[in-house]
Amino acid sequence: MDHQTVNDRNGDWLSAVVPLMKLLCLTVIGLILAHPKTQIVPRATFKLLSKLVFALFLPCLIFVHLGESVTLNDVLLWWFVPVNVLISTAIGCTLGYIVAIVCRPPPQFFRFTVIMTGFGNTGNLPFAIVGSVCHSSDNPFGPDCHRTGIAYVSFAQWVAVILVYTLVYHMMEPPMEYYEIVADGNEVEEEPISNISRPLLHEAEWPGMMDKETEHSKVPFIARVFASISGSSQNTFPDLDFTEEGEASAGISSPKSIRCLAEPKVVRRIRVVAEKTPIQHILQPPTIASLLALIVGTVPVFRDFVFGSDAPLSFFTDSLEILAGAVVPLVMLILGGMLAEGPNDSSLGIRTTIGITVTRLLILPFVGIGVVALADKLNFLVQGDQMYRFVLLLQYTTPSAILLGAIASLRGYAVKEASALLFWQHVCAVVSLSVYIVIYFKLLSYI
């Protein structure tokens, strides 16, 4: 009996650790290929691979597995998946605020500390982990492991993208007190980072981010908009043109300009901030694929036409599934290429770096276990679906989103600090993910 128990325990450890060892091997291969001393594969190639994953392979993966798995009834049953993203982000930001108070980073990195602790990777890394876990025939989630796992991760991704392009985008604006303004009101900006010197991580998960730069992306826009409300001097914070296409300043009367004059000042400034929020960038290939998958999957006529062995377009979905198979290896190779660059110099401080890493990778997953267990007690979760619970737990366990590095570069705020922190978090995540996946596999029989 004791011998059987030992064998069962060893089997549990192996079933949890082996998938991560596979991902680690792929990452090491990518690291060797991209390492500066070997340069077997140049940086430009990794950027092209990243664009291929983003624009082709990942959308194929999302569309095939989410579209085939989801129905209108499933959308109603899966409501806690996106809600859990909001809960994990809120708890993470709260813990990040505590980290910022305790570790006392340089004042200009206070918001950065909160953001990097609160927002985890809900995109490429969870896809890779689920794909690797389900690759083994003896996985604990059954024959539909891969299809359902990818569907759950896909269903959560769009919420995280919306948060990044709204809340994170504005929280990552350069702090006003550390932003120099010359006498004529023109901002002194850092010299742009060239494509050659820009860290690969900025292109690793959401390529093309740098092309989204606007006139206000590298300035403390919100601080300037609300400067006069707080009583600050107009000489210190030059006001922005709040008129519609300069009509008011030109003395041209129009419904829009009349509306601007009639609006209270606070409401008008909130509207200006909302208009400058790059919400349109949410509609990128992965999110479009998620939307199409939901439409096709929930409408029976479309579903029967696209999915199933007898469907008229079955040959098309089969070809998409072949392309989708490239996601996991390419994602991990790109991650290895990112890590090959090594950590950048950082002004964040060792204490804050350790605080964020420990909180994100060790403390937050522990809190997540409690949240998922409570949700299960309240009957919020799909009954008897272990993969559903595993994906919910995984949302608390991943390191900070690589997309945050791209946002930092877009806003010109804490670029080197984001790069260094993401490097160390992903290195440490090899250990933390192994430990917690073993714990999750043990707990799934109880929650």
Question: Would you spell out the secondary-structure blueprint of this structure?
Answer:
Layout: H1 2-34, H2 43-69, H3 72-77, H4 80-103, H5 110-118, H6 124-133, H7 145-171, H8 221-225, H9 255-262, H10 265-275, H11 285-298, H12 300-306, H13 314-324, H14 327-340, H15 350-377, H16 386-394, H17 403-411, H18 415-443
Helix pairs in contact: 1-6, 1-14, 1-18, 2-7, 2-11, 2-13, 2-14, 4-5, 4-7, 4-15, 5-15, 6-7, 6-14, 11-12, 15-16, 15-18, 17-18
Your description of this structure?
Helix 5 (110-118) packs parallel to helix 15 (350-377). The two termini are 26 Å apart. It is globular and about 65 Å long. The chain is mainly alpha-helical and 447 residues long. Helix content is 63%, strand content 0%.
